[in-house]
Amino acid sequence: MAHEAEVDGVPEQPPRPVKHTWRRPPPYPAAPHPESADAAPQPGTVIQSSVYRDGRKVASPDTLAATFRLLRELPDAMAWIGLAKPTETELLSLAAEFDLHELAVEDALEAHQRPKLERYGDTLFVVLRAARYLDGPEEVDFGELHVFVGRDFVITVRHGAAPDLSAVRRRMEDDPDLLALGPEAVLYAILDAVVDGYAPVVAGVQNDIDEIETEVFSGDPAVSRRIYELSRETVEFQRATRPLVGMLHALMAGFAKYGTDEELQRYLRDVADHVTHTSERVDGFRQALTEILTVNATLVTQQQNAEMRALAEAGFEQNEEIKKISSWAAILFAPTLVGTIYGMNFDVMPELKWAVGYPFAIMLMALVCVSLYFVFKRRDWL
User: Fold this and answer.
1) Distance between CA atoms of 179 and 301, rounded to whole angstroms?
2) What are the residue ranges of helices labelled H in the chain?
3) What is the pLDDT of residue 319?
């Protein structure tokens, strides 16, 4: 697609006349059988390569060379080439045929790019981050899609399982009027598929947040880890959706500037509205998870404080018991000490022949014990 938007002030070539009218096709059909095209990509392979003319498929060559040859023979045709994790040789052959910029080719080979829209001459290079929600592990799986759009070609390079481009291709082939609009219509359909794929992810993340809120207030100790993991997925989701808002506005400006079909402009605006809504929902998810994490930390702190308080109370009670035991031990030790002295077997002791020695010893023991008892009682040890 050579004239959808003006990037960095680079002047564009005038668009080819558009004479077709079309209606928006029905939603995407069900996922294809695993053996169908684009459904189960294999690394280093061309998933499907087709040539279209006036909105109808002319041929599906088996090799890239045959596709190039057929496209040269049909000047008004458009090639749609889909690849999954292509080899360097395949991408370099496409770059040589369609004059793709080396920086864009390098990005498509390495993947792990942020969503962006760039123009290299007459070719647009679009990077999208698709997403799908996996019900089993309850997590979000992200894929990466690179799209080269020129005047007579669309090249898609997939890194990951999402999105299902076979459904996009069937949708376009079922509506020749839409496909006849050329590469800009294919780009719109791809964008629409990626954005529509966000809806189940939003629903899945919302359900996870609801479950986490229940787990937080039920005292589940594993909820902190789940909050952290979902927060990371939400951040990744935010990085996938937020740049799309600016990208779609740039495309809308280009569509309006170069007189692209009015219906196509209208539906592209609809996609932009969906992206904006999704981006706002994702921002809300991140804020909600931050608040949940704060509440969980507060509840954990309160629980720890309650446990520390219980331990302190138990220690205090234990200390009181130790005081009582120590007090009685001291009281009982005093008469034992006196009795031990008078029980020594010495021949010369002043008290041995003393007539009042025995009652004196008993009174001394009683006096010491009573004194100690009142001392400990005053100090609340007894």
Assistant:
1) 60
2) 64-73, 88-98, 102-110, 165-173, 176-179, 183-196, 198-218, 223-257, 262-342, 357-378
3) 83
Quickly list DSSP for 31-72: PPPTTSTTTS--TTEEEEEEEEETTEEEE--SSHHHHHHHHH
Nearest-angstrom CA–CA distance, 193 and 203: 17
The one-character DSSP state at 317 is H
- Which contacts qualify for 295-303: CB closer than 8 Å, 24 or more apart? 295/216, 296/216, 296/223, 296/224, 296/227, 299/216, 299/217, 299/219, 300/224, 303/219
pLDDT at 198: 92
More confident call, 229 vs 351: 229
Q: What is the pLDDT of residue 202?
A: 92
Question: What residues contact 157, with CB distance under 8 A and at least 6 apart?
Answer: 83, 84, 86, 91, 108, 145, 146, 147, 148
Say how far apart CA 114 and CA 367 lie, in whole Å.
Answer: 90
Residue 146: in which H helix or E strand, if any? strand 139-149
Q: What is the pLDDT of residues 251-307, one digit of tens each?
A: 777 665 555 556 777 878 888 889 999 989 998 988 888 888 888 778 777 777 887
Strand order in the sheet with 45-53: 56-59, 45-53, 78-84, 153-159, 139-149, 123-134, 116-120
Cα within 13 Å of Cα(92), Cβ side: 3
Q: Classify 148 as helix, strand or coil.
A: strand
Structure tokens at 84: 């999954």
Query: Angle at the Cα of 238 (from 232 to 239), degrees rounded to 5?
Result: 95
Q: For residues 112 and 127, is the Cβ–Cβ distance under 8 A?
A: no
For residue 325, give both structure tokens: 């035991």
Closest C-alpha to 272, from 258, 292, 252? 252
DSSP conformation class of 346: -
